[in-house]
Specification:
6 strands; two-stranded antiparallel ribbon; single chain; alpha+beta; 3 helices; Gyrase A, domain 2; about 160 residues; elongated; disordered N terminus
């Protein structure tokens, strides 16, 4: 049975057998992209003449623009869309991933006219960067505090052993 499955997996380029030595009758088949180290960088490195962000104004709805983010996924899409909802001047923001195999999403933003959708995105990005800097500083402070406490505990235990 294993040789037949092995041959099937060898000849099928989009799948590979994860663990042929399992004692169970269940098999885990994974996509080849999970193991293909050569193409891993294609997920986040831009191609020649490819822009990170492209945008165009929506002609059917006033104060609306569609931004296309290349080589990005749900992480950034959800972060931007959620943050944009917090601004009073943004009346609508949502993103969609056109196809799950391509690292790209489209973000649609509508404002009330007091600010352009492009300026709303720029402000949103700046605010997110500031929030992440605060998070980084807080994390570093807590991490160093834990380390100092841990080193202090280690020194105290070493002194107690000497006594």
């Amino acid at each position: 049975m294993w040789t037949t499955i092995g041959r099937l997996v060898e000849h099928e380029p989009n799948s590979t057998l994860r663990n042929p030595n399992r004692k169970s009758n269940h098999m885990n088949i994974a996509h080849k992209a999970d193991f293909n180290n050569e193409n891993r960088f294609e997920l986040f490195l831009l191609d020649d003449n490819e822009k990170k962000v492209e945008w165009e104004e929506e002609t059917r709805i006033p104060n609306t623009a569609v931004f296309t983010f290349n080589k990005e996924d749900h992480t950034l899409g959800n972060l931007l869309s959620s943050r944009l909802h917090k601004y009073d001047y943004v009346t609508f923001s949502a993103y969609k991933v056109p196809h799950p195999l391509f690292a790209k999403f489209e973000l649609r933003v509508t404002t009330n006219g007091s600010i352009s959708p492009k300026d709303a995105i720029v402000k949103c990005c700046k605010d997110i960067v500031q929030d992440l800097e605060v998070l980084s500083r807080s994390f570093t402070t807590e991490w160093l505090g834990k380390r100092i406490v841990h080193e202090g505990e280690a020194e105290r235990l070493a002194r107690e052993r000497e006594i």
